[in-house]
């Protein structure tokens, strides 16, 4: 083999040495790098969804055990007054014998019953 002046016989170890503009081979192939980035994005998405789900469960569980008191409801539904704090509420079952008993205004409609209601409505 005849070599021209100034050149020597070089042993080429790789294609990289022949073409200096070629890209250097990556340590991790591009296909694996893309799947790694995809897995990383998926992991971030899954972990975010998990945190949001747990937060929602905690909020729901904490609100299920909470019931507003009578004082809280009165404060929300009433105009502000300094006396609101002094009001005490109690539960009662009212039994009114006038409504439950025979008052003369209950029963099936009859002419006599209609006459009684007309008298009441006219203020007699």
Characteristic key phrases:
single chain, 124 residues, mainly alpha, 5 helices, UstYa-like, membrane, transmembrane helix
Task: Characterise this structure.
With 124 residues, this protein is mainly α. The protein has a domain at 27-89. The chain has 5 helices and no strands. It has helices at 15-18, 30-64, 70-77, 97-100, 111-121. The mean pLDDT is 76.
Instruction: Please provide the count of β strands.
Output: 0
Question: What is the H/E string?
Answer: HHHHH
Percent of residues in beta strands? under 5%
SSE class: mainly alpha
Span between N and C termini? 138 Å
Supply the number of helical segments.
5
- Tell me the Rg in angstroms: 45 Å
In percent, how helical is the residue content?
40-55%
Averaged pLDDT? 76
Largest sheet: none
Shape: rod-shaped
Low-confidence stretches: none
Write the SSE topology.
Elements: H1 15-18, H2 30-64, H3 70-77, H4 97-100, H5 111-121
Transmembrane segments: 40-66
Keywords: Membrane, Transmembrane, Transmembrane helix
InterPro entries: UstYa-like (IPR021765)
Task: Please provide a brief summary of the model.
The chain is 50% helix and 0% strand.
């Amino acid at each position: 083999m005849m070599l021209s002046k100034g050149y020597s016989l070089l042993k080429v170890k790789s294609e990289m040495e022949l073409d200096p503009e070629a890209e250097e081979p990556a340590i991790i192939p591009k296909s694996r790098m893309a799947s790694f980035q995809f897995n990383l994005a998926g992991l971030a998405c899954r972990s975010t969804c998990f945190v949001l789900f747990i937060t929602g469960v905690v909020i729901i569980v904490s609100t299920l055990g909470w019931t507003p008191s009578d004082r809280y409801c009165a404060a929300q539904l009433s105009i502000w007054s300094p006396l609101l704090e002094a009001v005490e509420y109690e539960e009662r079952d009212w039994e009114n014998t006038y409504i439950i008993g025979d008052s003369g205004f209950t029963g099936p409609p009859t002419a006599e019953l209609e006459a009684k209601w007309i008298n009441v409505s006219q203020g007699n």
